[in-house]
């Protein structure tokens, strides 16, 4: 049995509930899912500024969970918030939604589109796509709605905007599959796939399956160089408790 921690690095309890439901549907029955938020951070992650603060909350959760025997972590934000730092903090595999979804999309389509809620997220995601070596075959588009619109009374309007942007990318960008560019969209993947008639990849499901596989093979994050444990030093002020000396 593997124990998978799925961490939503923002403070939206509604998103975490959706993510938990999807994660429990996705994992194999013999595996256990723990889905949670940090104790502090932004309501949502929409751009670089939010991401900087959310990363600290994410790391605070991993510091608490790691001694309890976690076999793998999913960072449930499509910006892959804090993933590289998290890999320095634990030996367990860590996967973000963007990286996980791209790896799945590459196996399903020659060209695909990430549709994210807000225009402010387009360039950051383009940078991630380039980092993962997928910029030749992937385009990033925005639906023009807020991330939090996928909850509550605005959910139908947000879905319609997502559908319109995805349809446009299939028509104009040559996309053959759609990647959902936000964890808060996790509950609409099947609906959108049926409406569009093409594969729709949900990063929550993709990242969980990748982490499950790595955990099953007992593969761990290399500490040889890139993701090595940071050298001991003092941190000051409100970050004192995050000092590498206390890891």
TrEMBL record:
Pfam families in alphabetical order: Asp_Glu_race
Stored Gene3D superfamilies: 3.40.50.12500
InterPro entries named in the record: Asp/Glu/hydantoin_racemase, Asp/Glu_race, Hydantoin_racemase-like, Iso_Racemase_Enz_sf
GO molecular function: amino-acid racemase activity
SUPFAM superfamilies linked to this entry: Aspartate/glutamate racemase (SSF53681)
Family recorded in the similarity comment: Belongs to the HyuE racemase family.
Name of the protein in its database record: Asp/Glu/hydantoin racemase
Organism: Thalassospira profundimaris
């Amino acid at each position: 049995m593997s124990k998978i921690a799925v961490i939503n690095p923002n403070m939206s309890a509604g998103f975490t509930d959706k993510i938990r439901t999807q994660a429990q549907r996705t994992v194999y029955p013999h595996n256990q899912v723990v889905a949670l938020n940090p104790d502090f951070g932004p309501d949502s992650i929409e751009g670089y500024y939010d991401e900087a603060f959310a990363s600290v909350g994410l790391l605070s959760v991993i510091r608490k969970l790691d001694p309890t025997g976690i076999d793998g972590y999913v960072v449930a934000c499509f910006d892959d918030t804090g993933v590289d730092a998290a890999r320095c903090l634990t030996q367990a595999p860590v996967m973000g939604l963007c990286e996980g979804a791209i790896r799945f999309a590459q196996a399903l389509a020659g060209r695909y589109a990430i549709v994210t809620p807000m225009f402010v997220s387009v360039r950051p995601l383009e940078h991630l796509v380039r980092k993962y070596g997928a910029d030749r075959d992937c385009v990033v588009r925005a639906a023009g709605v807020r991330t939090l619109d996928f909850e509550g009374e605005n959910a139908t309007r947000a879905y319609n905007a997502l559908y319109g942007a995805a349809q446009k990318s299939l028509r104009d960008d040559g996309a053959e599959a759609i990647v959902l560019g936000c964890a808060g969209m996790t509950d609409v993947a099947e609906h959108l796939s049926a409406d569009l008639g093409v594969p729709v990849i949900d990063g929550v499901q993709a990242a969980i399956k990748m982490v499950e596989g790595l955990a099953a093979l007992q593969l761990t994050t290399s500490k040889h160089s890139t993701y090595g444990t940071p050298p001991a030093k003092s941190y000051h002020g409100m970050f004192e408790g995050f000092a590498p000396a206390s890891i």
